[in-house]
Write a structure and sequence with these properties.
With 556 residues, the chain is of the alpha+beta class. The chain folds into 4 domains: 234 residues, Lipocalin; 109 residues, Dna Ligase, domain 1 (2-Layer Sandwich), CATH 3.30.1490.200; 111 residues, Immunoglobulin-like (Sandwich); 85 residues, Immunoglobulins (Immunoglobulin-like), CATH 2.60.40. It contains 9 helices and 31 strands. The radius of gyration is 37 Å and the shape is elongated.
Length: 556
């Protein structure tokens, strides 16, 4: 039995439990009354037509709304249409009783051949008019089929049991209503007949596979749609769509569209595009990169390869071109859902939170971008499993990071820019997709990993503002206790720059000096001890609000 058939069976089994298990043996001897209608009888007054009909909520004009409501649970409009077709078909059968039982079985072995429930009116009735105690049945020509007054003789399991006051023994002797009312659920569900015991059986006996459903003839459009939505919400809440799992290559914009809640086109316009590199070595070391050579020495990374995706089965079958997808034999642990507009949703993945200490390097001290953040203590993230990463700020904004442009071979460090920047190898960093990080506070980074749990690390890093301030130095000649004048120019009034580090040497071999090695006061730096011509020193000034500024000094 497929998912749709199982669901339809579940819907009717849920309804049947309200009637099954009630004791109906004494109803023939129950006395009726000429008193007032019960509160329930008053609550269902009105003229009713069949729910599952062109007069009810399955009128053709509601098809799109049905599909919309179903698609909320099925994952695509293709599946939404299939679900609606199933629901409508399963509730609009034309047979019931012994004939239906012979065709569909009694439910003890499931429903291997499927089934249809008859939710229409029987006994020649096309409309019911309920007015307090009085229930009248009209045929298609508005002629009276029957008309009796009824007494509520019982209430059990949320169901209401009515018996005719007139002593008639025809199929309109009893009415058994579920607890639905037009005011609360916009419809009625009920059975009627002359055998109160047989009402307990939904899949066998003379009433098998029949449950009348009705809606007010003059019900408002708003309530008709509310009834459709309620039906879908109640019956599809636990529905699990059937997916085809596959892998596909994605551009950076496709990869991040779901996470950033933007379209791929808008992300491309923001500069989230292929990353170029001056070498053809480093990019190839990212296992999940779409790596392409660009000439003899350069390369580019166009996006992320072999990303796990889930495609709702009906949507997949409807695709005219499936060539971009490689179907997987088993469901992956992590995936993005493919949408029918061709986009990809957010990650479906478990996230593990790690504790790591974040440190910011900015401005003059950041050689590979406007900013570099280092995470001490980060684990489990490698170039073999890394697919991407998302930064989140305290205002809820999100930013996608790319191999080489932002993410390095050592994933515990990453960089980004908010303005034009050229790194030491001569490659211009993409910056437009992270430009508005300036002045914000980064609260989290989540690494997206292949075939394993994603890794999240919280932080509290303020992205300092850029500045045009500079440090100028006087010429310096090597010798003992060399004194150098330092001046800060064009500094913002609120910058409050202070000398933060003095280093000797260049690149990775530079050594950070201690207070025993130098002194600084009144704009003059004194290098203690002896120095040699050609020695290189760098000075860096830090501010709480602005990126670091500095200068390089070569002794004469």
């Amino acid at each position: 039995m497929n998912n749709y058939t199982k669901l339809a069976a579940a819907i009717m089994l849920a309804a049947s439990t309200s009637f099954a298990g009630t004791s109906c043996d004494d109803y023939d001897n129950k006395e009726t009354s000429t008193g007032e209608a019960s509160d329930f009888q008053k609550s269902i007054s009105g003229t009713f037509v069949e729910l599952f009909s062109e007069d009810g909520f399955t009128a053709s004009k509601y098809n799109d709304y049905w599909v919309e409501c179903c698609a909320k649970y099925t994952g695509s409009t293709y599946a939404g249409q299939a679900m609606y077709d199933m629901l409508k078909t399963s509730m609009t059968g034309t047979i019931y009783g012994a004939e239906a039982q012979a065709k569909y079985g009694d439910g003890t072995n499931g429903f291997p051949n499927g089934y249809q429930f008859n939710c229409g009116f029987i006994g020649g009735v096309a409309k019911f008019v309920i007015d307090g105690k009085k229930i009248t049945g009209l045929d298609a020509n508005s002629k009276v089929v029957f008309s009796h007054e009824y007494t509520q003789i019982d209430e059990k399991n949320g169901c209401y049991y009515l018996k005719s006051d007139d002593g008639n023994e025809d199929q309109f002797k009893y009415f058994f209503f579920m607890g639905d009312t037009p005011a609360e659920t916009y419809h009625l569900e009920f059975r009627y007949g002359n055998d109160s015991v047989a009402f307990r059986d939904f899949f066998s006996g003379q009433y098998a596979y029949w449950l009348a459903s009705a809606m007010l003839e003059d019900e408002t459009e708003a309530n008709r749609k509310a009834c459709i939505k309620l039906f879908c919400d109640e019956n599809l809440a636990d529905y699990v769509p059937t997916y085809v799992y596959a892998t596909t290559d994605m551009t950076w914009a496709e990869f991040y569209a779901g996470e950033l809640d933007k379209t791929a086109t808008s992300l491309e316009e923001q500069g989230l595009d292929a990353v170029t590199s001056a070498t053809n070595v480093k990019g190839a070391r990212f296992s999940n990169a779409i790596f392409e050579l660009d000439g003899e020495t350069a390369s580019k990374i166009a996006g992320v390869k072999a990303v796990n995706v889930a495609i709702e089965a009906n949507l997949y079958n409807a695709l005219s071109d499936k060539s971009r997808f490689t179907v997987l034999a088993d469901a992956p642990t992590d995936y993005k859902v493919y949408n029918e507009d061709g986009s990809f949703g957010k990650w479906n993945s478990t996230v593990a939170t790690q504790t790591a200490t974040a440190t910011l390097t900015s401005g003059f001290d950041a050689k590979w971008g406007n900013y570099v953040i280092s995470l001490d203590g980060l684990q489990d993230v490698t170039t073999a499993n890394l697919q991407g990463a998302v930064l989140t700020t305290t205002d809820g904004s999100k930013y996608g990071l790319q191999f080489l442009n932002n993410l390095w071979l050592k994933p515990a460090e990453f960089t980004f820019c908010v303005a034009e920047f050229t790194e030491p190898h001569g490659c211009a960093r993409a910056y437009k997709h992270t430009a508005d990080l300036e002045g914000k506070t980064i609260s989290n980074i989540t690494y997206i990993l292949k075939d394993t749990v994603n890794v999240s690390a919280d932080m509290n890093i303020y992205v300092k503002k850029q500045t045009s301030a500079t440090v100028t130095t006087s010429a310096a000649t090597a010798g003992d206790n060399v004194e150098i004048s330092l001046a800060i120019e064009n500094a913002p009034e609120d910058a409050a720059f202070a000398l933060s580090t003095v280093k000797k040497g260049s690149g990775k071999g530079a050594t950070t000096l201690t207070a025993d090695d130098y002194s600084y006061a009144n704009g003059k730096l004194t290098l203690k001890g002896s120095t040699t011509s050609g020695d290189i020193y760098t000075v860096s000034f830090a501010s709480d609000k602005y990126v670091n500024i500095g200068a390089t000094i070569t002794l004469q």
